[in-house]
UniProtKB/TrEMBL annotation:
Region (Disordered): 218-247, 663-692
Compositionally biased spans, kind Basic and acidic residues: 238-247
Name of this chain's protein: P450 monooxygenase
Lineage: superkingdom: Eukaryota
UniProt cofactor(s): heme
Family to which this protein belongs: Belongs to the cytochrome P450 family.
Keyword Phosphoprotein: no
Pfam family, one: p450
Entry keyword set: Heme, Iron, Metal-binding, Monooxygenase, Oxidoreductase
Species annotation: Lithohypha guttulata
Length: 692
C-alpha cells in the first residue's frame, strides 16, 4: 500500500516536472523567435500560489546568495513600479519579456511600443479573464472585449458629456466644502490633526458619483448622523450608522451603509463564490453578502423608477446623470432584441463598475496631491497664488465651470494633478495581451520589427514610462530630505521627485517642448459614439509629453471613460481646499503644539524633517495595490490651517539641508532590493555603502 502511494507521488512529481520543463522549453523557443530581449524566471507571476504566497518565501530567499535570487525582482507583482525605470536600465531594454514555465509576460515603458499597443485594440486585447471578478452584478464596459465591449462602451459613453460635467463640478464643490468644514471645524480654525484624508476623499468621490451618476445625493455626515465622535469632536466616517430612519421601506440597510459595506469588503465580494459567502459564519461575510443584495436592490429600484418616470414623461428633460441616460437609451431601443440594448443585469454591472473605476482613482488623486503639497510647501504657495488670480477671493457659489475650469486645468492645479498622476498612477501596469486567440503579433520594438508570441500577458508600465529620462525633460535632483527620492532609479535627475512646475511650459529650463512629432504612431480610426477623446490628458497650455510616455488614464480606444469626469472633480476639490487653507504635515508624534510654538525655524525644521521622512518612507515602501495603488502601511496625518497661519516656513527643507550639509547624499542605495527590506535610513552619511 505504502509503496503504491509513494509511486503515485513520484509519478506526479515527475509528471509536473516534465510539464514544467516542456512549458519552459516551448516558451523560451517562442521568446527567442520574437526578437525581443527576454529573461528566464522560474515562476509566472500571475500564478495564484505565487501571488498569495511569495511573501512567505522572502525570509528564505534572503538567506540565499544574491546571485541566486536575481530573478525574484522580475516576479513581484509591482516590480516595474517598485524599481521604476531602473529595472529597464538594468535589463538595458525598454521592452522585455519574462519567460517562465507557466507563461510569457511582456513589460514595456517604451512610448513607441505603448502607442502601437493602445492603438491596435484588436491585435492587443485586454486579458479579460483577469477582470471576471468585477462582474459581480453583470458584464460591463471594463470586463469585456471586442463587439460586446463596443456595445457596452456605446451605451455607457453618452452620459460622459460636458453637460454632466457641470453636475460633477457643482457636486464636487458642495462635497469638498462639507469635507473641509469637517476638518477645520465650524469656527474654521483648523488646529486639529486630520488623520482620515484617504477615507474622507473616498467618501467624497463616492458621493460625487452617486449624485452626478445616479442622481442619488448623499450628504456629508454630521456628528448627529455618526455613531462615534472622538474627544476632539472629530467624527470617524468609517463608523457609519445604519440608521433606522434612513432605511428605505423594503430594505435592511440604508443606501449609504450598503454602498460602504459593499466596497469595504470588496475582496470578499470578488474572491468568494456567492453561495459560499452566504453560508460562512461570522458577521463580516453576512454583512458583505447582505450589502451586495441591498445595493443591487436599490439600483434596481432606481432603474425601475427612472424608467417609469421617463415613460410617463415625468422626468425633467434636462437631467443628465448617467443613470437617466443609460435608461433612456434602453427605452429608445423599443425592439426588445435591439442590438445595442443593455439588459438589466448589464446596466447594474456598469453602474457598479463605474463606482469601482471612479471612486478610488479620483480619491487617490486628491489624497496624493495633498500629501505632495504638504511635502513641498513652495509648490503649494504657487498653487494658492494661482487660485487667488482665478477666483479673486470669490466664494464657490460664484465660481463658473465654463470660465474657471479651463484656468484651473491650464494652471498650477492642472499641473499638480498631472504631476501626481505621473508619480502615482492608480493603475501601475495596464494589462493587454495576445491572448484569446489573437496569435503572435508584429510590433516595432526599439526600432526593430519583432513578433510578440501568442498568449503573452502584456503590462504597459505606467510608472516607468512616466519617469523615463529619455522622454522627459530633466533637472538636477532637489534631494528633499538630503537624499534621492528613490534608492536606485533616476538618482541623477529629478524624475522621481514631485515638481508640478515642470508642466508649466514657460518654466522648462531651455524653453523647449517635446512633442509627439516624428514617432511612427498610427492614429485611431474614427469610431463614433465610443467617447474616445485623444487630446485631454492635460490642458493644451501644459507641457505635452510624447505619445505613449504619459498614460495615467490608459490611451487609445480603451482609455478611461471618466477622464474628464475625474479631472473636473479633482480640480474643483483642490480649488476648494486650497483657496483659503494650507495643508501641513501634522507633527504630533514629535512635538506638542505648545512646544512647537516656542521653537525657532531651525528647531522646527528638525521636527518637520522627521515627519517628512515618515511620509517619504510610506511613499517608497508603504504603497500597494488592491484595486488601485494606495498607501497601505499607515496614514499621513495633516493639519489644515488658514492661509497665512502656517506653522512651518515654506523653505523648511532648505533650512534642514543647510543645517545638515554633511548628510546630503547624491548616491542612492546601491543594490537596493525592494523585497529584501530597506536599510533603516536612506541617504545620509554612510548609508550609501550599505549595499546588499
Ligand atoms: C484620476 C482618476 C482616474 C484614473 C487615473 C483612471 C484611470 C483609468 C485607467 C488606467 C483605465 C484603463 C484600465 C484598464 O485598461 O484596465 C481606466 C478605465 C476606465 N475608467 Fe478610469 N480612471 C479615473 C477615474 C475614472 C472615473 C471617475 C470614472 C467614472 C466615473 C472612470 C471610469 C472608467 C471606465 C468605465 C473605464 C473602462 C473603459 C473601457 O475599458 O472602455 N474612471 N481608467
Ligand atoms: C451648478 O450651480 C450653479 C450655481 O450654483 C447653477 O446655476 C447651475 O444650474 C448648476 N448646474 C447644474 C448642472 O446643476
Ligand atoms: C486649538 O486652539 C484652541 C484655542 O486657540 C486651543 O484651546 C486648543 O487646545 C487647540 N487645539 C489643538 C488640538 O491644538
Ligand atoms: C420632455 O420633452 C418631451 C418632448 O420633447 C415633452 O413632451 C415632455 O413634456 C417634456 N417633459 C418635461 C417634464 O418637460
Ligand atoms: C474663502 O474665503 C472667501 C472670503 O472670505 C469666501 O468668500 C469663500 O467662500 C471662501 N472659500 C471657500 C472655498 O470656502
Ligand atoms: C475632447 O475633450 C476636450 C475637453 O477635454 C473637448 O474640448 C474636445 O471637444 C473633445 N474632443 C472630442 C473630439 O470630443
Amino acid at each position: 500500500m505504502a509503496s503504491i502511494i509513494l509511486l503515485t507521488i513520484a509519478i506526479s512529481i515527475i509528471y509536473l516536472l516534465t510539464n514544467h520543463v516542456r512549458g519552459l522549453r516551448q516558451n523560451v523557443l517562442a521568446a527567442k523567435k520574437s526578437g525581443i530581449h527576454y529573461i528566464v524566471v522560474p515562476v509566472f507571476f500571475m500564478e495564484r500560489w505565487w501571488l498569495v504566497g511569495h511573501r512567505l518565501l522572502f525570509p528564505l530567499l534572503k538567506k540565499l546568495p544574491p546571485s541566486w535570487t536575481r530573478w525574484v525582482d522580475f516576479t513581484l507583482p509591482e516590480f516595474t513600479y517598485d524599481y521604476s525605470h531602473e529595472v529597464f536600465k538594468r535589463v538595458r531594454h525598454d521592452t522585455f519579456l519574462t519567460v517562465s514555465p507557466g507563461g510569457i509576460c511582456m513589460y514595456t515603458c517604451e512610448p513607441a511600443a505603448i502607442a502601437q499597443i493602445t492603438t491596435r485594440r484588436n491585435d492587443f486585447p485586454k486579458p479579460t479573464h483577469i477582470y471576471t471578478s468585477v462582474d459581480i452584478y453583470g458584464k460591463n464596459v471594463v470586463s469585456t472585449e471586442r463587439d460586446i465591449w463596443r456595445k457596452h462602451r456605446k451605451a455607457t459613453s453618452p452620459p460622459f458629456t460636458e453637460k454632466n460635467n457641470h453636475l460633477v463640478w457643482n457636486e464636487s464643490i458642495r462635497q469638498a466644502q462639507a469635507m473641509l468644514t469637517s476638518w477645520v471645524g465650524d469656527d474654521g480654525k483648523g488646529n486639529r490633526t486630520v488623520d482620515r484624508l484617504m477615507d474622507d476623499t473616498m467618501r467624497l468621490s463616492l458621493n460625487v458619483i452617486s449624485a452626478a451618476g445616479f442622481g442619488r445625493k448623499m450628504d456629508w455626515p454630521t456628528p448627529e448622523t455618526e455613531s462615534r465622535e472622538d474627544e476632539s469632536g472629530y467624527v470617524d466616517p468609517s463608523k457609519i450608522k445604519n440608521e433606522d430612519r434612513d432605511i428605505d421601506p423594503g430594505h435592511k440597510m440604508s443606501y449609504t451603509y450598503a454602498i460602504h459595506c459593499l466596497l469595504d469588503n470588496i475582496l470578499l465580494q470578488f474572491l468568494m463564490p456567492r453561495w459560499l459567502l452566504s453560508r460562512l459564519p461570522g458577521v463580516t461575510p453576512k454583512k458583505a453578502n447582505e450589502a451586495y443584495h441591498e445595493w443591487g436592490n436599490y439600483m434596481r429600484e432606481l432603474v425601475m423608477n427612472k424608467k417609469a418616470d421617463l415613460e410617463a414623461g415625468k422626468a425633467p428633460n434636462d437631467t443628465n446623470d448617467i443613470l437617466t441616460l443609460l435608461v433612456k437609451q434602453q427605452l429608445v431601443n423599443t425592439d426588445a432584441k435591439a442590438k445595442g440594448q443593455l439588459t438589466e443585469s448589464e446596466i447594474l454591472g456598469n453602474m457598479f463598475v463605474l463606482i469601482l473605476a471612479g471612486h478610488e482613482t479620483a480619491a487617490n488623486s486628491i489624497h496624493f496631491s495633498a500629501v505632495y503639497l504638504a511635502l513641498f510647501p513652495d509648490s503649494q504657495r504657487r498653487l494658492q497664488k494661482d487660485l487667488d488670480q482665478i477666483f479673486a477671493g470669490k466664494p464657490p457659489s460664484e465660481w463658473d465651470y465654463d470660465r474657471d475650469l479651463p484656468q484651473l486645468f491650464g494652471g498650477m492645479a492642472g499641473a499638480v494633478l498631472a504631476e501626481e498622476l505621473r508619480l502615482v498612477p492608480p493603475v501601475t501596469g495596464i494589462p493587454k495581451s495576445t491572448m484569446e486567440g489573437v496569435g503572435p503579433q508584429k510590433l516595432a520594438v526599439e526600432d526593430k520589427e519583432c513578433l510578440v508570441p501568442a498568449n503573452t500577458y502584456i503590462s504597459l508600465c505606467t510608472g516607468a514610462a512616466h519617469r523615463h529620462p529619455g522622454y522627459w525633460p530633466t533637472s538636477k535632483p532637489r534631494l528633499a530630505g538630503g537624499h534621492t527620492a528613490h534608492p536606485v532609479a533616476n538618482i541623477d535627475n529629478d524624475l522621481e521627485e514631485f515638481r508640478p512646475e515642470r508642466w508649466l511650459i514657460s518654466d522648462t529650463a531651455d524653453g523647449t517642448t517635446v512633442t509627439a512629432d516624428g514617432l511612427p504612431v498610427e492614429t485611431l480610426a474614427k469610431e463614433d459614439g465610443l467617447g474616445v477623446n485623444e487630446s485631454s490628458d492635460t490642458s493644451d497650455r501644459l507641457f505635452k509629453p510624447i505619445k505613449g510616455a504619459y498614460l495615467p488614464f490608459s490611451d487609445g480606444y480603451r482609455a478611461c471613460l471618466g477622464r474628464r469626469f475625474a479631472q473636473v472633480e479633482v480640480l474643483a476639490v483642490l480649488a476648494v481646499l486650497f483657496q483659503n487653507y494650507s495643508v501641513e504635515l501634522a507633527v504630533d508624534k514629535y512635538a506638542t503644539d505648545a512646544e512647537l510654538e516656542k521653537m525657532n525655524d531651525d528647531e522646527k525644521a528638525e521636527i518637520w524633517h522627521k515627519a517628512a521622512e515618515d511620509v517619504r518612507e510610506l511613499l517608497l515602501n508603504g504603497l500597494g495595490v488592491i484595486i488601485t495603488l494606495q498607501i497601505r502601511k499607515g496614514t499621513v496625518p495633516f493639519r489644515f490651517v488658514p492661509k497665512g497661519q502656517e506653522k512651518f516656513p515654506d523653505n523648511v527643507d532648505e533650512i534642514w539641508k543647510r543645517n545638515h550639509s554633511d548628510q546630503i547624499s547624491e548616491t542612492g542605495v546601491p543594490g537596493w532590493r525592494s523585497w529584501a527590506g530597506t536599510p533603516k535610513k536612506r541617504g545620509g552619511s554612510g548609508v550609501s555603502d550599505q549595499g546588499i
